[in-house]
Amino acid sequence: MGLINTKEMLNKAYHGGYAVGAFNINNMEIIQAITEAAAEQKSPVILQVSAGARKYAKPAYLMALAKAAAEDAGIDFALHLDHGADFEICKACIDNGFTSVMIDGSHFDFDDNVAVTRKVVEYAHAHGVTVEGELGKLAGIEDDVKVSAEDAMYTNPAEVEAFVERTGVDSLAIAIGTSHGAFKFKGEPKLRFDILEEISKRLPEFPIVLHGASSVNQEYVKIINENGGNLANAQGVPEELLRKAASMAVCKINIDSDIRLAFTAGIRQTFVNDPAAFDPRTYLSVSRNNVRDLVSHKIVNVLGSQGKAGK
What we know:
TIM Barrel; two-stranded antiparallel ribbon; 10 strands; globular
């Protein structure tokens, strides 16, 4: 078992009517939790690394942990760069052994986005690595990605065919109403399924990606707030909307904030319940169990990817 790219993984998800979870990783416990849940559910999974994770844990550590997890769990995974800011970062990750990268040129105009994405695709494909591009801008904050609500922009379906044809990307992240962070909606959560449907008609059998798709589990928000936290009005994407997207053209769903909430809830609750606790193995084990339970829940109830590994 080892690290693979996402091409066959996402193609199977498209034709199987499910989505693959792309879970952001930051440390050993989170990687263990994700891969153990995936092995238990026999589910394909993508381990996703943000710019913040690369700075915090360092690429060499993350690479070694991902390889160890694949060997330990006995299931193939993809190791994916999330929101690569430029060609140099994508190239560095490809050279380091990542099997998939995202080049986020959404802050450029269309032609410049095409140019940088095409450059990454040419280098990545020469090394057997898959590439995700992005059209449209998601609101919210995630590590180095910061987009105000005023600057957010839905993906224009009229642009997707030319973008995919000119860049050669393997998957496309679109903006239909999701957003980064734990505070996604002020009113009723809504996703523009009409845009998704139009894009899927223009790009038949092409894998679509949703970023900013954490549901912000209110149980974990409550635990955090009851144990010294302050996450007022945190709200995510309802799981039934994500499941609908996964049954359509969406083949990859990104989940980050939900993992952070589950992990933090475990630490806060342990410290309050056991003020004498000072062994990291004690409180990190609780957090790891929370994340493992969360990932299992997402695989079965949101992604529908259980039992799909290796098929």
